Amino acid sequence: MAKSVDEFNKKRLRSSNITVVISIALVLFLLGLMGLILINAQKYSDYIKEQLVVNAYFDENFDVKDSVKIAKLEEETFKKVQTLAPVKKATYISRDMAAKEAKKTMGIDSDALFEENIFPSSIEVALKPEYVDPAKIDEAIKVIKAVPGIVDVKNDSTLMVDVYNNLSRILKWILGFSVLFLILAVVLINNSIRLKIFSKRFIIKTMQLVGAKRRFILKPFIIEAVILGAIGSVIGLLALGGVWYYFTSQIGSAFVQDTNQYFWLVILVLGVGIFISVLSTIFATWRFLKSNVDDLYYS
Fold first, then answer.
1. Boundaries of each FtsX extracellular domain copy (predicted)?
2. Environment class of residue 87 by beta-carbon count within 10 Å: exposed (0-12), middle (13-18) or buried (19+)?
3. 8 A C-beta contact, residue 244 and residue 36
4. What domains sit in the chain, N to C, each tagged with a CATH number?
5. DSSP H or E segment with residue 36
6. Which of 104, 138, 158, 270 has the most crowded CB, counting CB atoms within 10 A?
7. Which SS3 state, helix, strand or coil, does residue 289 take?
């Protein structure tokens, strides 16, 4: 009879541990997924901002006799623009390239309607993402315009402001959902741990009544919480890694390639799983340590 009771208790304990591990794994999988979305959303935000270019123009007065001299000056100016702090990437657009682009835009195949060198050469500048900001864009344009050889800088400031505001709004929503998932992770893991500790409330109180110190009683529960939290976190990370591997194999380089960001996400997920498990265990166990024997029947 005693053996069957022990077997029943062991099965119940295993079932309780498996439930806690699965709960931790599922919650941390969702939390890690939101972290991956947040990391890559920032990348795409920066990518879109880099597509919003400004155009720096050279002097449109062009004399064929001075073409060699002008080409040299424009090359020097182009190199200076490339080294400016706000500049992410600079592309030189020659007069011939500008004429071809204009023909393509207007749908004209003939050269009859174009005079030679009607369009000035220019530099197409992609700004660094942090400068695609209503508060910094004017400063960036002034820096570019101050370069000797540049006579004018044009950009669609309205479009840049609209894109910046929309991207900021989207990132805030994603960040908000990430925080919400973190809160849900805390609540769900805490509830799973509390249910597990609740099933052992009589054992906790019995150990206390026979003289065991609170630290002695807490120690095995904390060790178990660390193990369960680590196992649940690893399972959640493995599932997350499998899902992410599938998507990256399908889409490829569309995702962030910086492994440092993923490393810190793994550390965060693992840390959250263990920390919440340990903290919930301490609070739940401490509650029964402070309660009276009669209260155990009504908890």
1. 76-153
2. buried
3. yes
4. 2-47+164-297 (no CATH), 53-155 (3.30.70.3040)
5. helix 2-50
6. 270
7. helix
pLDDT over threshold 60, residue 66 = yes
Provide the 3-class DSSP secondary structure of residue 228: helix
Both tokens assigned to 241: 């890694």
With a cut of 50, say whether residue 5 has pLDDT above it.
no
Q: Tokens at residue 187, please? A: 């609540």
- Estimate the crossing angle of helix 214-251 against helix 259-290, to 10 degrees: 150
**Distance in angstroms (rounded) separating the CA atoms of residues 63 and 237:** 65
| Calpha distance 55→155 (Å, rounded) | 6
The set of residues, in sequence order, having a beta carbon less than 8 Å from that of 281 and lying 6+ positions away, is: 193, 197, 221, 222, 224, 225
Two tokens, residue 110: 């003939």
CA distance 73 to 94: 13
How does DSSP classify residue 146? T
Q: What pLDDT does 57 receive?
A: 86
For the whole model, what pTM was predicted? 0.63
Taking residue 119's Cβ as centre, other Cβ atoms within 10 Å add up to: 20
Q: Which amino acid is at 166?
A: N
Specify the range with the lowest mean pLDDT, choosing from 81-85, 209-213, 222-226, 227-231: 209-213
Residues 6+ positions from 137 with CB-CB distance below 8 Å: 127, 131, 155, 157, 160
Say what the pLDDT of residue 178 is: 78
Dist CA 254 CA 299 (whole Å): 52
The pLDDT tens digits for 161-170 are 777 777 778 8
| Counts for the chain of helices (H) and strands (E), in that order | 8, 4
Phi/psi of residue 187, nearest 5 degrees: -65, -50
